[in-house]
Each structure stands twice: as C-alpha cells, then as structure tokens.
Amino acid sequence: MIVLVTGTLVPGENVFALQLVDRDKRIGEYAESLKKLMAAKSVDKVVFCENSGDEQAVEKLREQLYDGKPENKLEILSFQGDGDKVAKYGKGYGEGEVIKYALHNSRFLKNEKEFIKLTGRVTVENLDEIIEKMKKGILYFNPVKIYGKDKQTDTKFYKIPIKVYETYFLELYMQVRDKDGIYIEHLFWKCLKENRLAFRNTPEYPRFQGTSGSIGISYGTTEWKYQIKNILCKLKLYKNQ
Fold it and tell me: Source organism's superkingdom (predicted)?
C-alpha cells in the first residue's frame, strides 16, 4: 500500500488558527512520523509532499531521515503553494493544493490505483492491522463525530481510489473558508453524501498519536473512548447519518 503524507515544513505567516509554528520542532516531528511510517510492514511506499518550498528545510528533513543513506521507499516532493490563499482561507486549502500537486507530480503515485492519505506529524499505531484488513478499490472514511448536526469527515486518515479522488474531491479545497466555519472536513462529508459515494469505516479505529498543528491538542484518546469507536468501526456503525 502507498501512503501520501501531507505537510508544511515552514508555515507562512498569519495562517488562520495555526498553533505550532516552530520550524525545527515541526521538521523533527515530521521526521519521526515518517520514520515510523516507513517501518510499517504493510506500507510499500511513502510520498511526503509539502507546500512551503523551503529547500533548506527539506534538506534538513532529508538529513534526519536518511543519515547519509538513500531511502528507496520514500519520495519527497516540495513546492511553493499559494501562501496568501492558505492564510486567507485556511489549512484545508493548503492540504488540497498538496494532494493535487502530489497526484500530478509523484513518480510513486503515477502507476497506483489508490492511496492512503495521512496528515503529516500524525502516526497511526495500529496502521498494519488496519491496512491488512482493507479491501482494494473501497473508500474508507470515518466521521469526526457520530452524532450532531455538524457533520464532518475525518480527513487525517482515509483510503480512496485515485480516479474517485480526481473526479469528486480534487478541487474541493477551493471552497474552504476556515474563518466562516467551512472546513475541508465539512466539504468531504457533503461530497460523499451528495454524490452517493459508497464508503466504509476503517476496519479498526485508528490509534492516532501526535499533536494538531492547528488547535494544539493531542490526537491520543482515552482507552474507553477508543474501544467504543473501535467497536462501532468493526460493526460499520461509525457513521454520522
């Protein structure tokens, strides 16, 4: 399985609701999460794509990852995204740019039919168990919440066929307006429902580790909450109807 990791090594100024801006700390956390990902047995290739276009930061990341040795499992892509629009509209705008760039420029993704998307600096402790139970050609998404009127799809981690992404999701980031409460998570949920796209919950609920760069909270959860979500995932009931 190929995993596409999105990120921003050096965020621009005035990005709405961004908490973690320390350059060295961000690079270090990206390096650690990528190392764990490359060590996963079920992951064949990793594409890391970032949109700061900072060559020095990319080189520093390579130094921490490779330690002087080439890595044929990892492809690193870097480009200069539209910083003004990311600052104006929000992080989901930047993430959409990153995925679009990766799909158009990655040599790893060029011959793939589907990919798993993972937000940078986040790790999934039970990644191997989840991937081993996933079926080819199936969309896997989990909601942010089970109940409530604020319907959102969790975009930290999902699996999707490339043709489906390019047909329905590729340009959604242009509608992101974080300051108006319109996040990429809302747009993904709306897209799934309006286009009647069949999807499943992940076979197991992801055990996320890491810290949100936007709101600064830890992605870890208490064990009892995880077990409830995990049971609902396995029963295919973790869906915000």
Answer: Bacteria
Domain assignment of residue 31, yes or no: yes
Confidence (pLDDT) at 215: 45
Query: Domain tally for the chain?
Result: 1
CA distance 5 to 73: 13
Range of the domain at 173: 2-234
pLDDT single digits (tens) 126-153 = 999 999 999 999 999 998 877 767 889 9
DSSP 81: -
Q: Give the Cα separation of 177 and 185 in Å (integer).
A: 11
DSSP string, 212-228: -TTT--B----HHHHHH
The answer to whether 163 and 109 have CB atoms below 8 angstroms apart is no
CATH number for 114: 3.90.550
Predicted confidence (pLDDT) per residue in 30-60, tens digit: 999 999 999 999 999 999 999 999 999 999 9
Decide if 241 is inside a domain: no
C-alpha span between 238 and 82 (Å, rounded): 35
Would you state the pLDDT for residue 227? 83
Note the pLDDT tens digit of each residue in 186-199: 999 999 999 999 99
Q: How many CB atoms lie within 10 A of CB 63?
A: 12
* Domain assignment present for 67: yes
| Pairing relationship of beta strands 114-119 and 157-161 according to DSSP bridges | antiparallel
β-bridge partners, 157:
118
Phi, psi values for residue 235, rounded to 5°: -85, 0
**Sole residue written with tokens 């975009």:** 155
239 in any annotated domain: no
